[in-house]
Amino acid sequence: MIIFGTDFDGTLYFHDREEQIQSVDVEAIKNFQKAGNLFGLVTGRGTAMWKDIGVKLKDKVQFDFRIHSNGACILDRDGNPLFKQYIPEEIVRKVVEKGKNMELVFHAEKDLYVLNASEFVDFEGVRCIHSIDELEADEVFEISFRADSFEGKEYLAYLRTIPGLEIAPNADFVDVMAQGMTKGFGVKKMLELTNQEGITCTIGDSYNDQTMLEQADVSFTFPTSPQVVQDSADHIVENIAQALDYVLKNKN
23-34 vs 240-249: helix axis angle to the nearest 10? Predict the structure, then answer.
């Protein structure tokens, strides 16, 4: 059996294309699963963004497992939780105190919260807040922010000094989780919790995908990915369909 994990944004779903989910990928995924293999989601998006993911998927792809918040939350195919790792509350408060004037996105257990909302107001189900106390004791898997401004870069440098955090840059945002939470960890933990054995394969396009690309038996990325991401992958492909075709033909 082959266990294949895919990133979402920029890998399965493309914001800037007319065909945002490629039909060739959808067909290849269905055939891959019909052959008895597992195809799952490995994303930096939290579980509170599942509704937004569902709107974008339009039931075109069904996942056999879901790994959210870069490994901090793992769910089975029915959405039942297998593993959760929150950021400790005292660390969340420390992170917010320094970034209280920035747009911070909290991927929590129940909802997606945004402090000082500007860009994230259009996401499905987002809750705009003005204070961390409005989280209403909701546990936080991950905090995201933009680091492409001077303020963002200074904030990122500060976060790197706080013990107990895992920091994962990606194409547009920086994701902050509890220490040790990475996509590579998430795939490994999912296999352990479900007692799955087989060839593990992953595909992704950005920096937060590197751990799962490096740890998989076979990994893929795109010619448009940053060079360090390409260096972390075994193969360069044009789409998911090409990657699935390769692993099916070379599984032995």
Answer: 30
Between CA 92 and CA 143 the distance in angstroms is 8
Read off φ and ψ for residue 65, nearest 5 degrees. Answer: -160, 160
Arithmetic mean of pLDDT, 144-171: 91
Helix (H, G, I), strand (E, B) or coil at 90: helix
Contact 204, 212 (CB under 8 A): yes
Helix (H, G, I), strand (E, B) or coil at 138: coil
Instruction: Please count the other Cβ atoms lying within 10 Å of the Cβ belonging to residue 121.
Output: 10
8 A C-beta contact, residue 237 and residue 217:
no
The β-bridge partners of 129 are: 115
Q: Which residue has the tokens 């269905």?
A: 30
Give dist(CA 29, CA 24) in Å, integer.
Answer: 9
- SS3 of residue 86 by DSSP: coil
* Whether the model pTM is above 0.90: yes
Per-residue pLDDT reduced to its tens digit, 59-103 = 899 999 999 999 999 999 999 999 999 999 899 999 998 888 889
Contact 188, 162 (CB under 8 A): no
Residue 220 main-chain phi, psi, to 5 deg? -140, 150
In the beta sheet, which residues pair with residue 40?
A: 5
Name the phi and psi angles at 149, rounded to 5: -110, 170
| Separation CA 145–CA 187 (nearest Å) | 24
Task: Please give the Cα distance from 53 to 19 (Å, whole number).
Answer: 16
List 174's β-bridge partners, or say none. 145, 169
